[in-house]
Amino acid sequence: MVKKIFCLFWFLLVLVVLPAAEARVYLDINTPTFVQIPIVLSKWKGADTTPPGLPLKIYEILANDLTLSGFFKVIDFNRLPNPLKGKTGIPTTVSLAEWGPSGGEILLVGETAWKPGDPVVKIKFHLFDLVEQKHMVGKQYEGIPQALRKMVHRVADEVVLQLTGEQGVHNTKIAFANGRGEGKEICVCDFDGAEMKQITHNQSINLSPAWSPDGKKIVFTSYLRRNPDLYVMDPDGQSFRRLTSYSGLNAAPAWSPDGKKISLMMGMTGKSDIYTIDADGNNPKRLTTGHGNEASPTWSPDGRQIAFVSDRSGSPQIYIMGTDGSNVRRLTFEGGYNTTPSWSPKGDRIAYCGRVEGRYEIFTIGIDGTGLQRLTSNAGNNESPYWSPDGRYLAFSSTRSGGSKIFTMNANGLNQRPLTSAKGGESSPAWSRRLE
Amino acid sequence: MSKKSLVVLFMILCLGLFLVGCPKKSVVKEEPSTKQAAEAAAERERAARLEAEKIAKEKEAREKELARIREEEAKKAKEKEFERSLVGKREAGIAGEVFESKLLKDVHFDFDRYDIRPADTDILKENAALLMQYPKVKIQVEGHCDERGTNEYNLALGERRANSVRSYMISLGVSSDRISTISYGEERPLVSGHNEEAWAKNRRGHLVIVSK
Q: I need a labelling partner for A175 at 20 to 30 A (CA). Which of A332, A407, B10, B58 fits?
């Protein structure tokens, strides 16, 4: 524990070495016509004692992060003309005349210092606006070597903040169910697909992981005791315990934004209804009362409403209700099979899976029922969308490359890519908050 | 007494016997009493009838006994057949052992539906009859779905399918505390294909024995 606090302390130590320029939004991602910003990543430099692999590794993580963000066209130093190709580290002066041939509008330069045995890695970067010829930001991070990826992700988050007005989500994790054939285990990986970890090892059917709002717990369904019960554990798989064991279903949990309650599907009455329970598993309250099958609750970010699936009209559709079950209204009317809603963190839209001509596709819709957008098409079955904490991305599962795999995309449907290179069998992604 | 006289005496005695025996017969023959004859005949008939009845009754009882024995043997055989039909099933990561029996048959569902198909009601009647025969047996109905649609909605659908089977069997007289349910959604397909043939097989209510 002492060690943990120490790590955290070092990681949180951020030194701003140069004053940041006034924040300016370079990119309005909400405009449908937005064009990716060309950003030059010059070669990173290591200190004399630093193994040459380290700056290269940092460069690789950073370039991938910025590409994944969807906002940038990354110009790799290897593709720069001479003499720019050979420039490393942080220059003392930067001019458009010098960097114009790079084709970039933004320049990112950086250095690192560490030698084997050092407890701390140092990372320093600067960002320049080549068009306006001004320095945008410069920061230095220090942390233990094991926190290297996190530090680089913070650099990427900072770049995204400078250019879009909101911090990136590179320090987030995605949990999902994973398994081919018998059994599914819960896995967690970083936003960039790295650091993939299987956190259950019980060979049971483990489904629908959901993060607590503080990012410190994962709740999910497991058939360990021959009933779909809720279990909870830390994101590293520790402190595993059973949370509920009501008869019938205890499934598709969703933690309330204040962390005090969990909404879920329960089957106590012989069919699936939406309930809430306290975060300790007690005090079940039934919110839906009709004869329909109810599924997949998701909280509005203000914690006042729950969207869910009901087939009360004859086919599964998305509905919204108050958290006491009042004021139920139907949200979706297009199509005959709309399921797995996910409420956006900004509260304005709901993503869901809808069937079109026998295939399952990802849609988003305004919470007033207007502005329906289809984000996937003609690429396998696409299910279970889940918003990133900044509302700029969606994770979902897709069978476009064979087995079911987790993909991410920008909230407008661009930039669709697989999260990992795994072979498939992945389902039900859930995105964490930004993690420290 | 000479030998000759003995022979004569023997002949006389024989004659005498003849004369004594014959007249009686000739009396009945020659002087029949119709009333007496009818009575005798009736008596004989009654005796014969009683005898026949007795024999029939004994035969019936024997047959009944035989039938009872046969039935008992059949029941025992069936019991053995049921017991023999039980196949233990243990699954990694899921507590306990259940038993499957080919005598407890699956029912199937239409896509996105959970009502019992009319054609499948006979299957549930047979399943229920078997359960009535073995009052100690407890079962669990598993609700399964095909791979289409989302995992979570399929959990709800599987829950409803399992409960449809349960309700129907309760309506046939099976005690409610003998049937539990579990939804596996699309997580435990019977066959692995991605076509309607496979999907139709996977949309099922499957019965397992949780207690013998």
A: A332
The CA distance from A95 to A44, in Å, is 18
Domain residue spans in chain B? 35-85, 88-211
Q: Are residues A137 and A201 in the same domain?
A: no
* Separation of alpha carbons A382 and B90, rounded Å: 33
Query: Which residue in A has a C-alpha nearest to residue B159's C-alpha?
Result: A271
CATH number at residue A230: 2.120.10.30
Q: Which CATH class is domain B88-211?
A: alpha beta
Interchain CB distance below 8 Å, A226 and B94: yes
- Contact predicate A287/A273, CB 8 Å: yes
pLDDT single digits (tens) A272-318: 999 999 999 999 999 999 899 999 999 999 999 999 999 999 999 99
Question: With 0-12 CB in 10 A as exposed, 13-18 as middle and 19+ as buried, what is A4?
Answer: exposed
Q: What is the pTM of this model?
A: 0.84
Cα–Cα nearest to A92, from A113, A105, A111, A79: A111
How many domains in chain A? 2
ipTM of predicted assembly, 2 dp: 0.89
Question: Looking at A111, A146, A164, which one is the last position of a domain?
Answer: A164
User: Mutate which of B152, B154, B187 to test chain A, going by most A C-beta atoms within 10 A?
Assistant: B152
Around B162, how many Cα atoms within 13 Å sit in the side-chain half-sphere?
A: 31
* Chain B residues closer than 8 Å to A273 by CB: none
In terms of domains, do A333 and A277 share one?
Answer: yes
